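Reopening this ticket.

The earlier resolution said the output was attached, but the attachment link was broken on my side. Pasting everything inline this time so it's all in one place.
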Amino acid sequence: MARKHRVLMAKPGLDGHDRGARVVSMGLRDAGYEVIYTGRRVTPAQIVSTAIQEDVDLIGLSILSGAHMTLFGKTLDLLKEQGAGDIPVFGGGIIPPDDAGKLKEMGVKEIFGPGASLPSILTALEKHLPR
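Inline output:
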């Protein structure tokens, strides 16, 4: 039996609204992924530590607070510092298009905004899964 792909879903920072992260988590789970959800208000260090401990294939960050540049960047930096920079990171939330482009330049693989369909998310994420 093949191992399920593992995804860590996290809400970094002080953002308390997690409906989108939960909906995407359930959709990924229904599509056959093993989803580990950290809950709200976690730090980049907690996210990276959990991702390494759980040996995940992807990390999904959801944020609505406007701190995406800082918190996504810190998470990417910590992944690299701890030798896990090969774990693809995707993000979602209220992220202006200009910032989405900057985040991709920093290393975030995909950015999904409100209303992104689960099939579009699954198609995009499959490009970044290990074979």
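Reporter confirms the inline version is readable. The beta strands are 6-10, 34-37, 58-63, 89-93, 110-112. The two ends are 15 Å apart (CA to CA).
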